[in-house]
Structures
1.
Amino acid sequence: MTNFDPQPSRRILLAGAGALGLSGLAGGAQAAEAAPLVNPVVRQRADAQVFKHTDGYYYLTGSVPEYDRLIVRRSRTLAGLATAQEAVIWRRPTEGKLGGYIWAPELHWIDGAWHMYFAAGDKAQPFRIRTYVLRCEGRNALTGAWSLLGEVQTPWDSFNLDSTIFHHKGVRWFCWAQKEPGIETNSNLYLAPLATPLTLGRPPVRLTVPTLDWEVRGFKVAEAPAVLIRNGKVFIAYSASATDDRYCLGLLTADANADLMAEGSWSKSPVPVFVSSEETGVWGPGHNSFTVDEQGRDVLVFHGRDYKAIKGNPLFDPNRHTRVQRLYYKPDGTPDFGVPAGAGEIPDRFSPLDRPGAFLRVEDDVVSVGEGPLATTQLRQKAGAGGLVILEPILRPGHGLKVEGGVVAIGPGDKATAFKRVKGLAGKGVSFQAPGGGHLTHRDGAVLVGPARDVGARKAATFLVS
């Protein structure tokens, strides 16, 4: 087994990633100052990979609707990716090998050089998909000269795609999806150490085969692995089923100290961890990656559509858009994906300073402070006139918190209360001042607006944002 020099992986979330919090260059051009992060971040870019490299830039690549080229864009901020200049680093040949569909690229820094892993078919057989690698001569992935390094050598000459690379305990690992001869599925997931950019260091272990109901809807699929190492565990999120509204995420888990090459080290979620949401209007969420925001908070990257009904083959529907939202964790340390947040500002969670572990939450028409499913605790701060904000629950788009007689309820957007966001009254976090005076606060689980005259009241009216 050959161990490469340690470099940050692209679908792995590294502990301790720092925050820059700066506006900066987007593909060489100045990004908008303090641009808000809004979904969708990039339209018509599916299979999105976003990562923060050691040079301080966020990089994005993904599948284009024409499936004919490979692209890269970069920005100093996540929000800047929306308008960053996009470079076409390679186009498929007009004939022969690699002249078919070009899918699911990933950008990696290996031994001091950029490498692009991607899946490609042949001109005469566009679905004869295999994994290839390009190598860049130069440190700038957008302007450097790219050339074909070769085809990744797997044990079988069969359909394979969606490769990713991560580091764990000094080893560079390679994880991918492939159709294994003798197994009647479209693709399974495999793992092996990487000896060179094109070869495996050991025969692979088969991590999972799609057998559960939610993995075999339309097609029997386990694909698009994305690795996350957190809380003493190695997690692999993966996509399952057809690429329409049935597309979803599952999760594999292994102990961080386990033998990752032992099939028994891995367990599979019995239910999908991320699915379409009628409430938020996002359909077919999947093919994800992980990164961190400018504050170092964990971020989930995925694609999804804004509608359910698709005409024709969903693979050729162009509107799978790149989206992001913050990733949270359950008490046992496993990731809580919640639901795909709809279009608009990235939602936040608000925990009262005097009630750790409780959150401002909305369920049906009830506004409260307490515990509950993640999606009920996520509210976006919609900017209004004069720097005011409306707090919109993600499960009730077009609605917001409204104050009636000092009590907080839910109302249509045009009836919602616009609060002034101010520095937290208790010296940290934020507080929300109502137009008629008083601040958003809570008492016995109820949410209301009232004065904050003493230390206890100021804590109750102060919210930590996550």
2.
Amino acid sequence: MRLTYFRELMDGEFGPVRAASLARDHVFAELGGLTVDEALEKGYSPREVWLAVCRAYDVPPARR
């Protein structure tokens, strides 16, 4: 998954404002206590991060 597609999925699921806030501010235990932005900067794959977000926010499997 490309980072641009990851951002499109985030915006589509949460809206652009909430997606940006979530990526910047929400700490995910599944990502080692990192935010989305921190995890991506540390080299986590966008797919791995997207799935962690989906599990944390109960995104239906059809939209994962």
3.
Amino acid sequence: MAVSRKLRRKIVRLDRVFYWYVAPDYDDAGVHKLHILSEDKKFIVAYELEQADKPNWRPILVVMGKEFEGLSGDYTGYRRVLTPIWQDNLITPKLVGEIIDWCYSKEKDLILVNWMGEILT
């Protein structure tokens, strides 16, 4: 099933079409998150806004889709990974592109964390 394009912005990156939008996550106390997904819905991630401003906090990206470089696609459920610190006060297509590029990069250290940001062993 294709992605609904209503209220979503389109970005072409790595010769693929992605859609992104910002919306409150009511399952997470209404925190605003940037959602990025591929047209075929194999790549789905969510990134909480303004994580760079939190003291003593490393930003986390929630991987919801089966496609993410460095993680196997046979896992069911959400996975959380530490990310670089991006300037995330203002969401722009440039930031969305940086996140997509990082997700598909083969040269990154993947550190899995739990929902509290604690590193999993």
